[in-house]
Design brief:
The structure is a homodimer.
Chain A (H helix, E strand, L loop, with lengths): L4 E5 L7 H10 L4 E7 L18 E3 L7 E5 L3 H12 L7 E8 L11 H11 L4 E6 L12 H14 L5 E7 L10 E3 L5 E11 L5 E11 L7 H6 L3 E7 L5 H10 L6
Parallel strand pairs in A: 1-2, 1-5, 2-4, 5-6, 6-7, 8-11
Antiparallel strand pairs in A: 3-4, 7-11, 9-10
Helix pairs in contact in A: 1-4, 2-3
């Protein structure tokens, strides 16, 4: 059987520690091609580059791995990989990360890491976004390598439902071993924003986005609970956003005579 | 009863025609405050500004309406409005648009218009993104004003389910009147990308993202069908991306002994 072809991307940029760890694990499983942003793209959500040009440059960064850096977003990188770099070949797996920082709960919406994975799913490819709940640029990934490999093997063997990408988060390195995996739902939590108001040397006002993460969710079947309790969380995420329950609510409650 | 407070944003920028139309309709319904990007932000998805500063400037653009332009993304604009501009007041409605161009089907993921609406929903506010399926900067919005008003009134009166924002698309101006509204699901369609490869005057390669929209959906209960048949489409969109069906599939199929 030929080795699987694995596309690697991320949002922290091609020189981050997290992508180096991910590439080293994926090399055990197959042929790896990297297309990743040339600079950090955190918080880019599912942004794509429209109305501006894109750059793509081959770089020797990883031993024995074809690697390209791009001026674009994580979603652009997956598009460039699929439709240009790997034009005549179809990846067996798309992996993104390992993100430096949590992408649990609502953070999935803002996450460049997950946008690369969801872009892969849109292309019909089994896709996984990996994040470590530790924001340090020099974070310790040693406790997650075996889990990254196990999860990737399961996806290569079993696939993922159509229209779904996996959002995998790992607890930070703690004194006890990771307890296992919880396949769970996205926690009901949000960022409680504050804006830090300042003045530049010319007296013009500017703001920094700041704020705290607030968890409203009391359940034990969600990703926040899993991470807090030292489990790996896997949330299968779909890109069909239709709220079917709301369709019937609108049809029942709205006054159609007024429309 | 006090007039409702209505927050208006968009992704085409505060000077676009679409936001002028939206502001003029909303002024009939309540007190309007505008916080919108100072330049076009199409394709920004749910990007937010992290690691860079944000600007916010009050501008007299719309008659009798408080308006602010920001250097940020549409999602940033709604955050700035909620947590800074309107800090002590809660909007009764958040509207975004009217976008110059379709945001049906999968485009919801890439849409800055819808990210502003989803950000509103995240803040617990009834929120609607409006888009006209006509990309022209001078598009004719005359046939949609009455529908924008009717839909906003329904939402002010009935609210929207928690965790849901409405994605409203209007057909382009045609020779026949709009037939009505279809509350429907997101069509199964995607962008089939191509990259247009060129060389700059210094001989360095660059790319333009290009491509076609491909509709795989044969159903008549989706937004693509509605627009093609001259109906207004309303897709209620949820920001909880959990694919519940996939949780049980994974728990059944994966080999947990290997994990």
């Amino acid at each position: 059987m030929p080795k699987p072809l694995i596309l690697v991307s991320n949002d922290d940029g091609i020189t981050s520690k997290g992508i180096r760890v991910l590439v080293s694990v994926m090399k055990r499983l197959g042929e790896v091609v990297v297309v990743a942003p040339d600079s950090p793209q955190s918080g880019m959500g599912h942004a794509i580059t429209i109305g501006e040009t894109l750059r793509l440059t081959e770089e020797e960064i990883f031993e024995d791995v074809k690697a390209y850096k791009s001026s674009g977003t994580p979603a652009d990188c997956v598009k460039l990989a699929k439709h240009y770099v790997l034009k005549d070949r179809t990846p067996d797996l798309v992996v993104s990360g390992i993100n430096h920082g949590s992408n649990t709960s609502i953070s999935v919406l803002y996450s460049g890491t997950m946008s690369a994975a969801i872009e892969g799913a849109l292309e019909g490819l089994p896709s996984i976004g990996f994040s470590l709940c530790d924001y340090s640029s020099n974070a310790d990934f040693s406790h997650v390598e075996e889990w990254v490999e196990k999860i990737a093997i399961q996806v290569l063997e079993n696939g993922i439902s159509k229209g779904v990408a996996l959002n995998v988060n790992f607890p930070p390195k703690r004194n006890e071993d990771i307890k296992g995996i919880k396949v769970c739902r996205q926690a009901d939590a949000k960022w409680q924003e504050e804006f830090d108001e300042r003045y530049d040397p010319n007296g013009r006002k500017y703001f920094w986005l700041a704020g705290n993460f607030v968890n409203f969710d009391k359940g034990e079947d969600n990703d926040e609970w899993a991470i807090a309790n030292n489990y790996v969380s896997i949330v299968p995420c779909q890109y069909d956003l239709t709220a079917h329950h709301s369709i019937s609510q609108i049809n029942k409650e709205w006054d159609w005579d007024k429309l």
